[in-house]
Write a structure and sequence with these properties.
With 281 residues, the protein is mainly alpha-helical. 73% of the residues lie in helices and 0% in strands. It has helices at 13-48, 66-69, 74-104, 112-124, 127-137, 150-171, 174-182, 187-216, 219-224, 236-246, 250-280. α7 runs antiparallel to α8 (187-216) and α10 packs antiparallel against α11. The longest helix is centred in the N-terminal third of the chain and has 36 residues, at 13-48.
């Protein structure tokens, strides 16, 4: 008895082509949104930085590197110095206080949960609201406390480090600390030689993120002092705002923004490089 050969199903090239391109179709909305809110403004900022664009007159003529050359002034040098001081002291203070808070509240203590919530509150408050509260507190006439503005940044930034380090401490296996106790290591030795080395990835990541946030922070400083008195608290973000909105010099403000983006790119480079090394280790 002869067997009739079954016809083979033909391939569907169109269907296979759709399967190949389907992942890109899924990310297309997100990619389009990212282009509109990030890459397009970035392109315009780069373009405007080479022009004398004005807030009122609109797009100006091409001036080349003039906006960047004009940045080489003593005044802008002081802005960079104040920004660097704001960044280094603010991040270092937040790191130290955040780590100390995490170490103190790592162990089971009476009311530990309540203290954790209280210490986290500064991070929850938006910068503008926190600035308004501190502005009344630091009033020169009837303020309760008067000290340098960087302390407010530490007050805001330390809870972020506290939460990150506390999560890292809780992830350390208890067997590691118990082994240190068995070997006769003191609490200080366990901290220096056991806990901190294991917390190094957490400290690096959280410190880099906090540094990037501190560099571009605007509303906290603007609500508190607006860069005054006499530009004594003017940092890079305030300078960009004043150039673009008060003076109307969009080209100059765009050039200043490129300086901030270059600094952020440095943080991003070291952060990504560290993460890639950790992934390959």
């Amino acid at each position: 008895m002869s067997v009739t050969a079954q016809p083979q199903k033909k391939s569907r090239p169109r269907y296979r082509s759709w399967v190949r391109w389907r992942p890109y179709a899924y990310i297309l909305p997100a990619g389009l949104l990212l282009f509109l809110v990030y890459f397009l403004p970035m392109f315009n900022a780069v373009r405007f930085s080479f022009t004398d664009a004005d807030l009122i007159a609109g797009a100006g003529k091409w001036v080349g590197l003039k906006n960047y050359i004009d940045l080489f002034t003593p005044e802008f040098g002081w802005v960079l110095w104040r920004t660097l001081l704001w960044l280094v002291v603010g991040v270092a203070g937040s790191m130290v206080i955040g780590v100390l808070m995490a170490l103190l509240l790592e162990k089971a203590l009476p009311g530990r949960t309540l203290f954790r919530v209280i210490l986290t509150l500064p991070w929850i408050f938006p910068d503008s609201i926190a600035a308004i509260m501190w502005k009344f507190t630091l009033h020169p006439g009837w303020g309760l406390v008067n000290f340098h503005m960087i302390a407010i940044r530490i007050w805001k930034g330390a809870p972020f480090i506290f939460l990150a380090v506390l999560a890292g401490l809780q992830a350390i296996p208890r067997e590691v600390e118990e082994a240190g106790c068995v070997d006769g290591a003191t609490a200080w030795q366990r901290l220096i030689y056991l806990k901190l080395p294991m917390l190094k990835p957490v400290l690096w990541a959280s410190g880099t993120i906090l540094a990037a946030w501190t560099l571009v922070i605007f509303d906290l400083v603007y609500v508190l002092t607006a860069g005054g008195p006499l530009s004594s608290t003017e940092i890079l973000s305030i300078t960009i705002y004043d150039a673009g909105f008060y003076d109307g010099r969009v080209g100059a403000a765009s050039a200043l923004s490129m300086v901030a983006i270059a600094a952020l790119s440095i943080f991003s480079y070291f952060y990504v490089r560290r993460e890639m090394r950790s992934g390959l280790a």
